[in-house]
């Protein structure tokens, strides 16, 4: 991270990918040293924590997604930004509502990003079950780890010390990923790739002038990652079946 900081850098955005908390202690140390904001992408990490502190509360602000497939999802699109800094809170409130502090009075350019009341009501009910569902996800992840143990071609998800993973996704690495994905599909087991094209190779970011091979670790990961089925209703016999076919 520190090598990437320039005079133009304003913030560091750690991504708690797949529900696995980043090493926030190190990130915050670097941010303080260089006087930078820390914006946590906690969109896949509802309820995750590091050393007892919840993701999204460690930096200057945290962003969550309530897309239906998330650990805490509504029945449409939605999201939330949290912060304990009043100036940031006031700015976010302006941005979400056309830049208006009061009706028909725009102070800055904003957007329409208000959460519908019906979605908020759904989330309020589902929030009660978040920890229960997260715990079930952890149990399923442990089953995968148990039944995939000893397969040299498979690398299971890592878990940082002091981190409480919530396994939004269970993502393995396999050098023969595409072959495995096709085989599992023939057996009626759906898998996904999150995500096939790294950001630096997306057409939208061509202006940054990255080329294939510039970020080798990222590109290797994109060629090898595979998301196995994981949701609270998945049963142990189903996990066993998936792992049996992988073997």
Explain how this protein is built:
By secondary structure, this protein is of the alpha+beta class. The chain has two domains: 2-120, Type I PLP-dependent aspartate aminotransferase-like (Major domain) (Aspartate Aminotransferase, domain 2), CATH 3.40.640; 131-246, Aspartate Aminotransferase, domain 1 (Alpha-Beta Complex), CATH 3.90.1150.10. It has seven helices and ten strands. It has a four-stranded mixed beta sheet with strand order 1-2-5-6, with helices on both faces. A hairpin with a 2-residue loop joins β3 (49-50) and β4. α4 (130-148) packs parallel to α7. The radius of gyration is 20 Å and the shape is globular. The mean pLDDT is 97.
Profile the largest sheet: 4 strands, mixed
Helix percentage: 25-40%
How many E strands?
10
Q: Return the CATH topology of the largest domain.
A: Aspartate Aminotransferase, domain 2
State the secondary-structure class: alpha+beta
- Spatial order of strands in the largest sheet: 1-2-5-6
Strand content: 5-15%
What is the molecular shape? globular
Number of domain modules: 2
Q: Average the pLDDT over all residues and give the rounded result.
A: 97
The parts where pLDDT drops under 50 for at least 5 residues are none
The CATH homologous superfamily of the largest domain? Type I PLP-dependent aspartate aminotransferase-like (Major domain)
Separate helix tally:
7
CATH class of the largest domain, named Alpha Beta
GO biological process, one term: polysaccharide biosynthetic process
Protein name: Erythromycin biosynthesis sensory transduction protein eryC1
GO molecular function, one term: pyridoxal phosphate binding
Organism: marine sediment metagenome
């Amino acid at each position: 991270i520190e090598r990437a900081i320039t005079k133009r850098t304003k913030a560091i955005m750690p991504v708690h990918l797949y529900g696995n908390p980043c090493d926030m202690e190190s990130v915050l140390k670097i941010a303080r040293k260089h006087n930078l904001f820390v914006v946590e992408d906690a969109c896949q990490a509802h309820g995750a924590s590091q050393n007892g502190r919840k993701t999204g509360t460690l930096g200057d602000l945290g962003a969550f997604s309530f897309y239906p497939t998330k650990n805490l999802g509504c029945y449409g699109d939605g999201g939330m930004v949290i912060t304990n800094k009043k100036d940031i809170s006031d700015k976010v409130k302006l941005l979400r509502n056309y830049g208006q502090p009061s009706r028909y009075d725009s102070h800055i350019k904003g957007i329409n990003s208000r959460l519908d009341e019906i979605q908020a009501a759904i989330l309020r009910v589902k929030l009660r079950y978040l920890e229960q569902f997260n715990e079930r996800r952890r149990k399923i992840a442990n089953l995968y780890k148990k039944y995939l143990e000893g397969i040299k071609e498979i690398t299971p998800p890592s878990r940082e010390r002091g981190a409480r993973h919530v396994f939004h996704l269970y993502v393995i690495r396999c050098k023969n990923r595409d072959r495995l994905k096709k085989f599992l599909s023939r057996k009626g087991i759906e898998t996904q790739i999150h995500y096939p094209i790294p950001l630096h190779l997306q057409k939208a970011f061509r202006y940054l002038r990255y080329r294939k091979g510039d970020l080798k670790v990222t590109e290797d990961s994109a060629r090898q990652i595979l998301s196995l089925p994981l949701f609270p209703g998945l049963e142990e016999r189903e996990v066993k079946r998936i792992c049996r076919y992988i073997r």
